Amino acid sequence: MELQFHEADLEFRAEVREFIDIYWPEEARSPRNMASHYPAERSTTERAWFDGLVARGWSVPNWPVEFGGTGWSPTQKFIWDRETAVTETPQMSAFGVTMLGPVLYTWGSRAQKERFLPPIREARVQWCQGYSEPGAGSDLAALNTTAVRDGGRYLVNGTKTWTSGAHVADWMFCLVKTDGKAERLQQGISFLLIDMDSPGIEVRPIKTLGDHHSVNTVTLTDVIVPVDNRVGEENAGWTYAKALLAHERIGVARVAMSRVQLKRLRQVADETGQNGGTLAEDGSFRQKVHALEIDLLGLEMLELRTLAAIESGAAPGPESSILKLKGTEIGQRIGELAVEVSGYYALPFPDPRLLDNEGNIGPDFALSALQGMLFSRSWSIYGGANEIQKNIIAKSVLGL
Ligand SMILES: Cc1cc2nc3c(=O)[nH]c(=O)nc-3n(C[C@H](O)[C@H](O)[C@H](O)COP(=O)(O)OP(=O)(O)OC[C@H]3O[C@@H](n4cnc5c(N)ncnc54)[C@H](O)[C@@H]3O)c2cc1C
Hints:
The chain is of the alpha+beta class. The chain folds into 3 domains: 7-92, no CATH class; 127-235, Butyryl-CoA Dehydrogenase, subunit A, domain 2 (Beta Barrel); 253-397, Butyryl-CoA Dehydrogenase, subunit A, domain 3 (Up-down Bundle). Helix content is 45%, strand content 14%. The chain is built from 12 helices and 10 strands. The strands form 3 sheets. The chain has a 4-stranded mixed sheet with strand order 1-4-5-8. The chain has a 4-stranded antiparallel sheet with strand order 2-3-7-6, with no helix packed on it. α3 (74-86) packs parallel to α7 and α8 (283-311) runs antiparallel to α9. The chain is globular. The model has no long low-confidence stretch (mean pLDDT 89). The structure holds flavin-adenine dinucleotide. Flavin-adenine dinucleotide binds next to β1 and α12. Flavin-adenine dinucleotide is lined by residues 128-129, 131-132, 137-138, 162-164, 215, 378, 381-382, 384-385, 387-388, 391.
């Protein structure tokens, strides 16, 4: 089933496709691994893509026009997401564009907007997110990294963990405790921007299931941060932190990407033999794919509604929790089906007699299936664990 677009939207889609064909031509495209990856440097073709986006003014579609946004309608944004997902274009880093950007243009000082927004918009800087700590994940307000004011600077001490991409990041947006005596924990938190080159920062990798190196532990020892790098009011950081999480959850739902993975799964099933026919003709397989199609379509509708609400000025609310919950569940089901389709080709330690000249076994699709499926387990954890999203939905949507 396909969504129906108006004539103007179809014209816009043609314009988008033409742009993609120029800046991310067929030969640059390759199936994106479902596992996360943080390359230290971008390839020349990727850089050309980002430069093309910047030159066209399309690098931050979700930002307000005054800060470089496109002013697209929700449907146009939806088309953009879909077309770039289908063609596997490089993605702008979500930490800067989706998460920090909205906090900065909403609550940042004029100087912060001028200093930090342009490099994000031009894909010239990598940010990472310093929220979680060894004793503070779901219960984020219990964080223990302290920032003690000393004139025009803070002295920051503590440990952040699970920090994605910290090893390639230039900057970290970080939650710190600035008032340990506040009546409620949430009232003693501030939001700091920390230069990752500051003395006193150490980044160590954490190894995870089926992953390239993506997560880290970051320790901060007497790190000096100018007070000018605090976003908004001291001790009001919780407000900005929560808003950022709502934006993050919409991205984590990865609706467009799931659509692409499902399409690829169908193509592979068409080419895979089973009981004298193809896997695509197998009743049990078809049932699973159709169930996923239906759930994905429902999610696309919710995404459009959420984008429309944001467009009309509303901050993303509890619907971002529904998107995150359902989106990650669907993504994980697709990952499991990909392993099922790959069969023994997905095994990490195949029989050496089955390897081809390049040491691979089976079709390309199967190579990343297991790794992708294993990494997809983390989708229901980061951006706020799915159990927490259920609590939010129960409280804010169902009024329980
Ligand atoms: C791959 C990956 C990347 C990450 N990247 C980042 C990053 O870049 N920056 C960052 O700051 N953090 C990051 N995180 C951390 C992530 O946000 C936390 O892991 C997450 O918030 C859960 O916290 P926790 O690990 O401390 O688990 P806990 O909070 O200890 O939770 C453990 C389990 O208990 C459940 N639980 C906890 N409280 C409740 C409750 N009240 N009701 C019901 N169930 C509950 C949880 O759902 C979970 O299943 C990342 C995590 C992963 C796995």
